[in-house]
Structures are given as C-alpha cells and as structure tokens.
Amino acid sequence: MIKASVIIPTYNRKRLLCDTLKNLIGHLPPGVEIIVVDQSEEVYSDLMEIVKSHSNTVHYYKIFIKGLPHARNYGLNKAIGEVVIFCDDDIIPSDNFINNHLRNYKDKDVGGVGGRIIQNCEKHHSSPRLEYIEKTNKPYDNRVVGKVRWWDAHLTDNFDATTKMYIDHVQGCNMSFKKEAITKTEGFDEHFGGSAHLEETDLCMRIRKAGYKIAFDPDAELVHLKDPEGGCRAENYKQWFYWYEHNNTLFFLKNFNSYLFPIFTISSFTRLILSACKRLSPMIVFWGILGYCAGLKTYKSK
Fold first, then answer.
1. What is the pLDDT of residues 75-110, one digit of tens each?
2. What stretch of H or E contains 191?
3. In order of start, what are the domains of the chain with their CATH numbers?
4. pTM beyond 0.70
5. Sign of CA pseudo-dihedral 254, 70, 83, 96
C-alpha cells in the first residue's frame, strides 16, 4: 500500500475536530498517519486524550503562526507519506475515503486528486459522535467540475458531481497530492492571506505546469459541515472583500498572461460593484480596491 499522511489544519474547533478524528481513525488503513496542525488559542483536553490513545497513528503539533497555507506547509514537512491528503477539521469522511484517494495514484501521471464534497450548513448534532448525514443520491451527471477560465481566472466548482474526470483545480477541504509533486512546486504560497482563498488553486496550477494531471474522484467523498465558528473565515465584509481581491489579483498575476490583466481588472471591479449594490454597502468597492492594490504590491514584492 502507498503510505499516506492525512493532514488536518485546525483553529478553534474543539468538538468538531475530535469528531473528525474519530471518524478517520475508525476507517484508517494500515500504513497511514494523521497529522493535526493546531493553531488554536487553547489546548482541548478531549483532543489530547485522542492523541494519547492513538499515539502511533495520530501526531499532534501546536504552532503559533496563524495562516492556513502555513499550517499546510508545516504538516507537509512533518509528513512521511508518499501521498498527502488534506481535509478540514469539520468533515465527515465516507468509509473508504482514504483508499479512494490513494487508488488514483496507480496512474503515475496523476499528481493530485480532488474528492466529492457534500456541503451541509445545518445545525450540528450535539452528541459527541456525529452521525453520518443522510444525503440524496444524485443521478450520474456530466457537469463541468474544477475548471479555471483562461481569460479571467473564474472558477467552476461543482464538487458534488458524480462523474470521474480530469480537472484544473481542487477544493481545500478534500484534496490530496503526491508529496514529490508539492515539493517540486515549492508547496503552498503563504502570501495567500485571510481565508486563504485560491491557495490550493494556485498550487494546482503549478503542479499541472510541472506535467502532472489532477483527477476528480467522486468516490473519495466527504460531508463538509462548514461550521460558522473557528477556522479561517472572515469575520466581516471588510476582511472578506479585502482578502478576496488580494488573493484573486495575486493568483491571476502569478498564473496568467499579463496582456489579459485589463480584462481581469474590469471583471473584478464589475463584481465588486454588483456586490455593493446587492448588499447596499458602497464600502465594499473601497475594501475591494484596497485588496486589489495590496495584491499588486504582494506580487511585485515576490
């Protein structure tokens, strides 16, 4: 079996992290380790009990530098697996989640895999053991999944689809890579700040440029609970639109032809104006422009 490392960055999600670990441990194949990279403000006693009880397979690291790309890179440096699987701390994996990721790497050309994501925003169970959320089985579909539009970097997600295919990008709560592919491409770019929007897409662009394929496997499935507390989500509109435009601008400049930048700029400002009108908040345009300018500055500094 290919040795693998499951890396879970976490921030202030005590109970849900414990539930995620219990679900993963219950279906952990031989030769697979779990790495928890904790940026939380406090250490949770129940979590440490799980780590202590499964010390051979669960490795815990407490770090003090905040940032999702930094936590991913930290876990990557500690990982011993040939394949690294990244998932969020608020997920419920399917029983064969890990093996279904790993089977794709029998193809030597595959450098990354994105799995199926079922989004769930309902209130969470209060019991210590989350029960698997009953989902509707969708018929086989042929939707476009995980594409990046070449002229303005617009993303198509559709990661709840059921058709296996090659894709351009993955989503951070359910993705895996060959460790050698990430190492060759210098890991996650820690300049993607805030909610780290596009950090995984930027990595996928570099991995594909290095000659690898990225596959979408709907059988590598999980439920994403999208807990509103903790994590790296923005606390307000100001933070969200600032970092959204910063990261969008940085991503485009790093990965697309410069002659398309005016088209990207017009598209970005149009979206900002529409968002401001929809939310009746003209300051959204101002915050977005600040982020846009900061993204330019970050790119030039790199």
1. 999 999 999 999 999 999 999 999 999 999 999 999
2. none
3. 4-224 (3.90.550.10), 237-301 (no CATH)
4. yes
5. negative
